[in-house]
Design a protein that fits this description.
CATH topology of the largest domain: Chloramphenicol Acetyltransferase
Radius of gyration: 21 Å
Largest sheet: 6 strands, mixed
CATH architecture of the largest domain: 2-Layer Sandwich
Shape: globular
Number of helices: 10
């Protein structure tokens, strides 16, 4: 019998594995809204075949002795468990599925470390005013990220509906090499934290999703929608902190950058690298056109700089110089010590969904797609955006030890307000 293929944990996977917490699971949630119903047997068959088309997702954490030098993924060839489940329409069906996505991570010891829940919708449900189906994909972020699993869902859509789900071409960008903005604020001092609101007594994450108009951007603008979202996030948090009596401090916003292709050759796993976009309190008071231009220069420069996914320190920390148990303890200690220097928040802009996510004539094409990223402390708040069918789909996710649902609703209102202010005239 052939021994299963084993793959050492990449840097991102290992750091995440070292720092797991039961109170705030590291899950990514993807929520795809379809206008029509899906056939259970047909969806199970299509999704299982999609897993085989991308075999890197069929993996589990391999067992090993305490003195092993690395964690390893073991490729299984077949799922260990039924991945797809079905939930009938009900007053709280979608809300309960969202709660499960935030509170219950798929286990790393079962292949694949994801689950797909098809939730029926009926007009009048608390979370929906339309009929149809929601596909809610929950991902253990130690193993995989959102864009990789969206690629697998696009393959499943093509297998289910027989429609072309190839990705659309990415928008054309200027190829001139950007220059480092000369006025980038220093990153040596600890950044601002999101001020505490009214914490909930229950542990874990809370989440709020909403749909907004895409912000207008004059033709030929030197900035992108991503830059508008970055400015909106900075102004929203600065406003929130002022309201809660926090003294002005520089903000740092983590921004994932994903350079992978979106076709079937896309590498499956955690493939984004993280950069931090700084804002000083003074420059947030500048005219909007100036702030948008400065942010565009800064984000282009940061994206163009080659950098390991989590920086050079993480690559050194995860080299196999000691057993994983010892390095895990060191990693957790360093993470606690570095908490004051952790960025203020994370803005993950997926951008325009590149796939039609068309499940055929009866189920239809996705008209809304939401993502949310983990929001454990010390950040305590993440902002995730995507655009589908000409609309912006925003998910705010927070640690309940920092904010409540009412706080999330207020932050959503602030975000909507400041997003509108970025629509400057030519």
């Amino acid at each position: 019998m052939t021994a299963p293929v084993r793959i050492p944990f990449p840097v991102v996977d290992e750091v995440s594995r070292h720092c797991l917490q039961e109170q705030e699971p590291e899950t990514v949630h993807i929520e795809v809204h379809l206008p029509g119903p899906l056939e259970p047997a047909r969806l199970r068959k299509a999704f299982t075949e999609a897993l085989h088309r991308h075999p890197r997702i069929l993996m589990r954490e391999a067992r090993g002795a305490w003195y092993r030098r690395r964690y390893e993924w073991e490729l299984t060839g077949e799922p260990d468990t039924e991945v797809v489940t079905f939930t009938p329409a009900g007053p709280r069906a979608l809300q309960d599925a969202r709660t499960r996505a935030l509170a219950e991570a798929p286990p790393l010891t079962m292949s694949p470390p994801i689950r797909l829940e098809a939730v029926g919708l009926a007009a009048g449900d608390r979370a929906s005013t339309t009929q149809g189906t929601v596909l809610l994909l929950t991902i253990n972020h130690t193993a995989l990220d959102g864009p990789a699993c969206l690629r697998i869902l696009a393959t499943a859509a093509e297998l289910y509906g027989g429609q072309d789900n190839n990705p659309t071409a990415p928008p054309t960008r200027a190829t001139a090499p950007p220059q480092q903005a000369p006025d980038t604020p220093t990153t040596w001092s600890p950044p601002a934290r999101v001020a505490q609101g009214t914490p909930d007594p229950s542990p874990g994450n809370g989440m709020l999703v909403t749909e907004l108009p895409l912000p207008h951007r004059p033709k030929g603008s030197p900035y992108t929608v991503n830059d508008q979202l970055m400015v909106t996030t900075a102004l929203t948090i600065a406003h929130w902190n002022r309201e809660h009596g926090a003294r002005p401090r520089p903000l740092r916003i983590t921004m994932p950058v994903d350079d992978r292709p979106r076709d079937t050759t896309m590498p499956i796993g955690n493939g984004t690298r993280l950069v931090e976009v700084p804002f000083s309190p003074g420059e947030l008071k500048a005219e909007m056109s100036t702030l948008l231009r400065r942010t565009a220069e800064r984000t282009r420069a940061l994206k163009s700089q080659p950098r390991p996914q989590l920086g050079h320190g993480a690559a050194l920390l995860t080299s196999p110089w000691a057993p994983v148990a010892a390095r895990a303890a060191l990693t957790r200690g360093l993470r606690r010590a570095a908490a004051p220097w952790t960025s203020t928040t994370l803005l993950s802009n997926i951008g325009r969904i590149p796939y039609p996510l068309d499940f055929g004539e009866e189920a239809g094409r996705a008209h809304a797609v939401w993502f949310s990223a983990p929001a454990r402390m010390p950040r305590g708040l993440t902002v995730t955006t995507a655009s589908t069918a000409g609309r912006l789909h925003l998910a705010l996710r927070w640690s309940r030890s920092l904010l409540s649902h009412g706080d999330g609703a207020h932050l959503r209102d602030l975000f909507e307000h400041y997003l509108h202010t970025t629509e400057v005239a030519p």
